[in-house]
Amino acid sequence: MTATIVRPLHGRIQVRGLRGPRGDEPSNRQMFKTATGAAIRPTWVPAPEGAPGWEGHWEIARPHLTDVAEEIAIRDGQVEIEMHYSTAEQCDQRCRSAEGDECTCSCEGKYHGNSHHASWIEVGDTTLVRNSGSKVVTRTLSREQAEKDRSERFREMIRQIGGRPT
Ligand SMILES: [Zn+2]
After folding, report:
1. What is the mean pLDDT of residues 82-101?
2. Which of 43, 67, 127, 163 is most deeply buried (CB count within 10 A of its CB)?
3. Where are the domains of the chain?
4. Dist CA 109 CA 85 (whole Å)
5. CA quadruple 67, 103, 152, 146: dihedral positive or negative?
């Protein structure tokens, strides 16, 4: 089973269908902490009453999307990312000059906010969510691509601080 990360229009991201650790792998909570290198507080949200336990999910602060997606892809071979965008929010100047990887506007991150996800492959069709003013784009990230993106970002970071990659 491939884990799915849901990035809703607002609020924290959700990690669904994530397998448990095997052998001497760290716990999933520890994996998230290692991936983001930050003092994050992943929350386990249990399944609704009566539903099977595996229907529970993790919730993690939104800015950690890229790090968490890469970490899961590297451990498990691949991950799916379900990204929600507003159908109403127009792509304007404010949106195009936005920094980082945060975009929920109708352009689906095509014009900005996509630098960290440019290599994520879109799968299937964009789905309109009935009566919610949102649409869902599903992307997939493989282990190979995640490793490549991560090391490129690392090199770029070294370059910016004026060092030399080893
Ligand atoms: Zn836009």
Report:
1. 82
2. 67
3. 4-160
4. 9
5. positive
- Nearest Cα residue to 79 out of 135, 149, 154, 26: 149
Give the pTM: 0.88
- For residues 58-76, average pLDDT: 95
pLDDT higher than 80, residue 165: no
Per-residue pLDDT of 143-154, as tens digits, reads 999 999 999 988
- Ligand 1 centroid from CA 83, angstroms: 14
CA of 166 to the centre of ligand 1 (A): 37
Residues in Cβ contact with 165 at an 8 Å cutoff, skipping those fewer than 6 apart = 154, 155, 158, 159
What count of Cα atoms within 13 Å lies in the side-chain half-sphere of residue 39?
0
Q: Can you give the pLDDT at residue 166?
A: 57
- Calculate how far, in angstroms, residue 69's C-alpha sits from the geometric centre of ligand 1: 22
CA distances to 38, 69, 146, 154 from 28, in Å: 15, 13, 18, 23
Q: Say how many Å lie between the CA of residue 86 and the centre of ligand 1.
A: 10
Buried b (16+ CB within 10 A) or exposed e, 109-126: beebbeebbeebeeeeee
